[in-house]
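Folding Query — how this chain folds
Tokens — whole-number codes for backbone shape
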Amino acid sequence: MSENDAGASPTSTAEEDADSSSPKIPISWPTDGFLTREWIDDLTAAFDWSSRNLHPTELPSVLPFDVLQRLVLTASNILHREPNCLQIDPPSADGGAAVGGSIVVVGDVHGQLHDVLFLLRDSGYPSEDRIFVFNGDYVDRGAWGLETFLLLLAWKVFLPHRVFLLRGNHESKYCTSVYGFEKEVMTKYGNQGPHVYRKCLRCFEGLPLASIIANCVYTAHGGLFRSVSVVPSKRSKGKKGRKIKSSIDTCSLRLGSLEELSRARRNVLDPPWEGPNLIPGDVLWSDPSSTMGLSLNVERGIGLLWGPDCTENFLSKYHLKVIIRSHEGPDARDKRQFLKGIQDGYTIDHEVESGQLITLFSAPDYPQFQATEDRYNNRGAYIVLHPPDFATPEFHVFEAIKPRPQVNPYYDFEVAIDSDEELDLDSMDHSSAASV
């Protein structure tokens, strides 16, 4: 295992952008309906320029509503056809043997557009021989969640078999209503904002939950999950047509299987913390622990805590070498003193006989808006997996792009709960997105 570019300090191009002419705007949808690399480059330049030179309410002059709608719908159709757990094979240009390319894994980015643009340049853009796996939390807290999410959707549409977007816990109705994304969309698209927001929620529902990379690396936003034993109750006599209710065996927690993960219903606005469909909530909200065994994640109110023994059991059962999860930034780790901090964008939380568990966080100087002068000032990181076995993570650590363009937050960051703790679970919506 190696660490490359540790502490790399990217320089902002804000001065250059301010002096350059505006990019090709407005962005229009290709006449043939097929995205190209040039189209994505134009979209990237337009988002970067507009973030520095235009008021947020002017975004529709850059990306008109009808173009946004086509992009989100096209991406959503692709995402909803993918399985809960993606099987990602090593890069191959012709469908045959691997061609020696790499696989890049990215953690939380939280609407920090300029850091995402740096990461893409630094790692090398997605291509036929470079696969990207994004591990969720594209929106909220940062001021450019919409642009970040749309740009990644464009890459997905352009290279659907080389770019994979997993769901994070913030890709939900509840989190986006608390941590800024909903207000961001309404601010940027005005009267059309509610329609844009519903389209995004529908797209969130289609994001896969996990991936297996090269048969040796499991990735998911939160991590592991429980086995859900559904016990059918007896049908009430004399009431024809009554649905059979089911109850969950919560007396004993045990690790779930990939087969159970594949059967889970992921198309819910807010993954439930109770009932028969617990696996999505576990995958998105769970955290590792230094204590052996499985337990309920009482601090968050949803998901699990799992120990090194569970990591070992999961790796050995499926002949895997590495688990890569995200979900915890420096604010979260500050409250969990029994685990390492995440100031360098990653930690190795469990080292066991079969392999290791890694937490990966790709949003440097997070969160963008902080209530104290003493900022976390963490670095971000991404992982590159190389052939032939793709089982030895190579860490690339980087600093935040500064200065960031001046912009107002879209949520009350001084009162919003850090680390998604003490959630108002009763206000969550566990249904599918309604008419979009």
